[in-house]
Design brief:
It is built from 14 helices and 22 strands. By secondary structure, it is of the alpha+beta class. This is Alpha-L-rhamnosidase C-terminal domain-containing protein.
């Protein structure tokens, strides 16, 4: 339920800088079902009723709002003793489902606004007895309603509107931190917060509430908080990227028992009959026998094997074998020769997907030949400036968006297939669109785009969404070309690679990148091109060593802290 104030009456302007008379008309009460009053990402919301309040609602004025839910779904709402709305909830079926008449209650303001509440009282409708009373004026209220100060150093998606710490979205954020600010305390803080939500199965909450202490507050909805199984995979991979960036083996050892519980749960989802991963519900792809779930599991298990080896655990061969067997099943059962790519799922081989392609290539499940073929097959998914998530989505459907999240995952796959032109085009198109219009340019990455490059959810689009920020680390790793070497030898950049192949193909005259090292130090590369000659400068800790290569040129670099050379392109 939302009650909105009068925006402009008799020359009295609202004190709010941002008002929306279309979504929230003045002096109006809105009744909605779902997650809010407008659609948020893929979470549907439905306006059930809209009615005028029979007087002007003013700012800085207290009103007594009474909501009565009677038998058989009868709902009555009054403001200061005057009836405003009277409906029967059984008359509504948003999304084809009846409106629930049970559940919790809460209070809050609409986006960009402020609202104040006091003296909350809940009565039993039948016998009029008081079942809840709270003046809402004490500091304990902030704890009860999850609005206390931040309990940890954590990273959010869409921080302007989210109070959730998203496990899967942190896949991108973890990598962004490692390629930019080096704020690794935020990375560890986020994992520390998330790991406190682990349940007996080994699963970690996919979106715990920032304002609640997970050690003291039970989950508000088990299905909602643990319901996206692929986010378990993405969460572990975020951790694996942190270890790769930092070589923080102390933190790996400290938390490994919890990660192993999660890995045991992940491994239990490999179907012994099909050899593929079968999950309950996934966000990015098919849950049962899907290319996304199976290939992301391969990547997760191989990453786990690397970390286990680095910290001296005996489980590394087990994870490596599980990954090898699963990769074999994917190649035997999910490759569609006619399409030249991996099918969406065992039961839907004629559909291709962005996320399935992305992980089947980034996990090295695909051979070199199949990687090149799968990248070429992306033409089937191309839509506007980027790629739609599945080939079966209607190009003109209102719900069909370009996701910088999945298109960011896809960048890795395109680079694995060494299609430099396609990768460059995707970077310019999708991330370039976020910079073109001064009215929508925020300096940060977006949540969704339309195929034409506008904010994908209209005014409700988050324009500060880390899940859309893959370009940040791709520019460092592939355009400037600075990345860690493969395997545990690359942990903490003990061994590194400079391979500016993509930057050269983009026609850049120069590029530079610097990565923060843990616990201190940095690794830096600069290069410039003139008259088909590339001048390269690299600064690195002397205890590290690296390889520079581009085209057929390859140089081994070690036993120094500064390297300068020029090569012929």
């Amino acid at each position: 339920m939302l009650s909105s104030t009068e925006v402009d009456s008799g020359g009295q302007w609202s004190s709010f800088a941002n008002t929306n008379n279309t979504v929230t008309p003045p002096n109006t009460l809105l009744l909605a079902s779902g997650f809010g009053f407008v659609n948020q990402t893929t979470l549907p919301s439905y306006i059930l009723a809209s009615t005028k309040i029979p007087f002007s609602v003013k700012e800085k004025t207290w009103y007594r709002i009474k909501t009565v839910l009677g038998g058989e779904g009868k709902l009555e709402i009054s403001v200061d003793g005057r009836e405003v709305l009277k409906v029967n909830l059984t008359n509504y079926a948003p999304g084809g489902k009846p409106v629930s008449t049970t559940g919790p209650f809460g209070f809050g303001a609409w986006q960009d606004q402020a609202a104040y509440f006091r003296n909350a009282i809940a009565y039993d409708t039948a016998n009029k007895s008081v079942i809840y009373r709270n003046p809402l004026t004490g500091p304990e209220t902030l704890v009860e309603y999850g609005t206390q100060e931040n309990l940890g150093t954590v990273c959010l998606d869409g921080p302007k509107r989210d109070r959730l710490v998203w496990l899967g979205d942190f896949y991108h954020t973890s990598r962004i931190i490692g390629a930019s600010t080096g704020g690794f305390n935020y990375t560890r803080g986020t994992f520390d917060f998330l790991l406190q939500t682990q349940i007996r199965s080994g699963q970690i909450a996919i979106a715990p509430y920032l304002g609640y202490d997970p050690t003291k507050t039970g989950t508000l909805s088990l299905e909602r908080v643990y319901g996206l199984d692929d986010y378990q995979l993405l969460g572990f991979l975020a951790f694996a990227h942190y270890i790769r960036q930092t070589n923080d083996l102390q933190y790996a050892r400290k938390t490994w028992s919890q990660w192993e519980k999660q890995l045991s749960w992940l491994a239990s989802n490999i179907n012994p009959t099909s050899g593929l991963a079968d999950f309950g519900f996934t966000f990015l792809g098919a849950a049962q026998g899907g290319s996304l779930g199976s290939c992301a599991t391969v990547e997760t298990l191989n990453a786990a094997a690397d970390i286990a080896e680095a910290i001296g655990k005996k489980t590394s061969p087990k994870y490596r074998k599980l990954a090898t067997d699963l990769a074999r099943s994917v190649n035997q059962k999910l490759w569609n020769k006619a399409l030249g790519t991996y099918g969406y799922a065992l039961g839907d081989l004629n559909t291709s997907s962005v996320a399935g392609t992305a992980f089947c290539l980034s996990s090295d499940v695909a051979s070199k030949e199949r990687a090149v073929s799968a990248v070429a097959a992306l033409d089937e998914l191309q839509l506007g400036l980027g790629y739609k998530d599945r080939s079966t989505l209607d190009d003109h459907g209102i719900e069909t968006k370009i996701s910088p999240n999945t298109n960011g995952l896809l960048l890795q796959a395109i680079l694995a297939g060494e299609d430099w032109d396609r990768a460059a085009k995707l970077i310019y198109n999708v991330w370039g669109a976020m910079l073109k219009d001064h009215e929508t340019r925020s300096g940060a990455s977006w949540e969704y785009l339309t195929p034409a490059g506008q904010p994908g959810l209209g005014a409700f689009t988050s324009l500060g969404h880390p899940w859309g920020g893959a370009a940040t680390y791709i520019l460092t790793e592939w355009v400037a070309g600075l990345r860690s070497a493969d395997g545990i030898q690359g942990f903490g950049y003990k061994n590194w690679v400079v391979n500016p192949e993509l930057g050269a193909h983009m026609g850049l005259s120069h590029a530079s990148a610097k990565v923060p090292l843990y616990p201190s130090g940095e690794l830096e590369v600069k290069w410039s091109i003139k008259s088909k000659k590339m001048a390269v400068q690299i600064k690195a800790p002397p205890e590290t060593k690296g390889v520079f290569w581009i085209g057929k040129t390859k140089k081994t670099l070690e036993n120094d802290s500064s390297y300068q050379f020029t090569i012929q392109l």
